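Worked example 3 (structure in, sequence out).
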């Protein structure tokens, strides 16, 4: 079995735990550095220890997947602030050159984030001006790229409202990170890196990122590395995507995927925090994962159902938002009956639930559970942005299909699959769609803390989250199919905690046995 070392973006579950789980399925062995040496929230990864780990691990593996943001800046959130200047970052990432020189046959994939169009909420001051910087980026793009001169006065007025230190750090970080992205393209061209994903973090259809994207794509063309670099929406999920790509490369096989969209209008929607129609994002994620889009379901190894947005400006973070449309244009019956038909035809079926950002669609999840379809799926995801969800869903699908081909119907693989599927719903349905909003309202009113930073109230809030999650777990277990692996009395919620000092995400582990 091939071995791959992954340097994650940071130590959040979506960046660390997911790839750790995929390494247990029998398609590939995954090695990751200890959690304590990589970035956590506003804490930087330990550059020296990470470099030592890379050098020690390289001789033992067949490939490496490297988050440049973790290596250069210390993590995703540190990538948006200016603790490290460009020259310092260049010096740190020089370890990749050394790895290539010492191990010329090592397969090296890398991912670098194209910075989002607002600041990071690292403290109360920055949280206060998040929306203004977002608007600034959009207005700047409209003035300078789209040549809409009428917005110049609005841009100047907004610039005066934002504290100078807040805006300047944002602009400096953008410039530094843009130079790093260009350097990574150079390293693809000279053979240091075998494949590079440049993933566009939270954005919109207009913004400063679009001028940067054009520069990067033009550079890819000029250096003639169009087969080895892809710029597309995403961030946290990207090491998963590159894992799927690497595994298929080693297997000398490409999974063929047929996308099915909830509606023809939905696939043309621009999902929240993204800059292009859903259909284009889906194609990009399938391509980045090394799979192929096919036009006929009869050709496909997998049918990928995409639960598309229905419109509106829901961002998934307001505590009173319902994670349901209750709209007659939302074609749930079509989705369920089509999924059921494809499953009966013996097809592998997955669901990318991107109808809402930051949560499952509770109408769809209830329908999948009550019709006993959910646990027959090859994969499901419904977290954060559309790109995040697509990357996890597609990767889980690819790793699962390849593991099945290599291992057949082993009970251990079925157990890992069921655990991961339950964890997805405990995270995206139970917590994100139901518990998080309730908890945020409670702690704001009762403890006077904000969900973006729990300050000294972590333990109290963490216990509250655990208490609120138990009923959802018990309900979910009741839908498990009967069988030797899925026997309902054997499962437990072995871990439920807030991984960072905020309520934005949860870490859940579902286990079997006492």
């Amino acid at each position: 079995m091939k071995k791959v070392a992954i340097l994650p973006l940071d130590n959040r579950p979506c960046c660390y735990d997911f790839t750790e789980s995929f390494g247990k399925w029998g398609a590939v062995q995954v090695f990751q550095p200890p959690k304590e040496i990589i970035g956590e929230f506003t804490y930087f990864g330990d550059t020296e220890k990470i470099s030592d780990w890379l050098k020690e691990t390289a001789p033992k593996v067949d490939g490496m997947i490297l988050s440049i943001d973790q290596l250069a800046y210390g993590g995703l959130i540190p990538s948006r602030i200016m603790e490290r200047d460009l020259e310092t970052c260049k010096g740190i990432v020089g370890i990749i050159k050394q790895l290539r020189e010492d191990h010329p046959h090592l397969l090296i994939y890398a991912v670098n984030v194209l910075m989002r169009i607002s600041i990071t909420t690292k403290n109360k001051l920055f949280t206060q001006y998040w929306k203004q910087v977002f608007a600034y980026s959009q207005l700047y793009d409209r003035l300078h790229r789209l040549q809409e001169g009428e917005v110049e006065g609005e841009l100047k007025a907004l610039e005066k409202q934002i504290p100078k230190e807040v805006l300047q750090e944002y602009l400096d970080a953008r410039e530094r990170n843009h130079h790093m992205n260009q350097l990574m393209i150079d390293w693809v061209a000279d053979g240091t890196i075998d494949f590079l994903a440049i993933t566009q973090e939270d954005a919109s259809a207009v913004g400063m990122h679009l001028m940067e994207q054009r520069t990067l794509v033009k550079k890819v063309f000029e250096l003639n590395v169009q087969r080895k670099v892809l710029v597309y929406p995403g961030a946290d999920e990207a090491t998963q995507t590159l894992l799927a790509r690497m595994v298929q490369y080693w297997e000398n096989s490409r999974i063929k995927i047929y996308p099915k969209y909830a509606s023809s209008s939905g696939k043309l929607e621009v999902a929240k925090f993204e800059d292009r129609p859903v259909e284009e994002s889906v194609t990009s994620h399938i391509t980045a994962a090394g799979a192929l889009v096919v036009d006929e379901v009869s050709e496909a190894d997998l049918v990928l159902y995409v639960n598309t947005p229905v419109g509106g400006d829901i961002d998934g973070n307001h505590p009173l938002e319902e994670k349901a449309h209750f709209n007659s244009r939302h074609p749930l019956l079509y989705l369920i009956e089509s999924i059921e038909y494809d499953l009966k035809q013996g097809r592998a079926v997955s669901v990318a639930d991107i109808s809402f950002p930051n949560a499952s669609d509770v109408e769809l999840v209830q329908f999948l559970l009550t019709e006993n379809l959910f646990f027959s799926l090859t994969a499901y995801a419904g977290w954060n942005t559309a790109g995040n969800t697509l990357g996890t869903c597609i990767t889980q699908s690819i790793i699962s299909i390849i593991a099945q081909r290599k291992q057949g119907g082993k009970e251990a693989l079925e157990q890992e699959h069921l655990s991961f599927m339950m964890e997805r719903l405990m995270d995206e349905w139970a917590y994100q769609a139901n518990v998080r909003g309730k908890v945020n309202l409670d702690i704001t009113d009762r403890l006077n803390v904000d969900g973006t930073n729990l300050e000294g109230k972590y333990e109290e809030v963490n216990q509250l989250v655990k208490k609120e999650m138990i009923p959802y777990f018990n309900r979910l277990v009741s839908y498990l199919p009967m069988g030797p692996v899925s026997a309902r009395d054997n499962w437990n919620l072995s871990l439920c905690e807030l991984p960072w000092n905020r309520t934005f995400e949860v870490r859940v582990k579902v286990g079997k046995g006492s």
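Notes: The mean pLDDT is 95. The CA atoms of residues 439 and 464 lie 7 Å apart.
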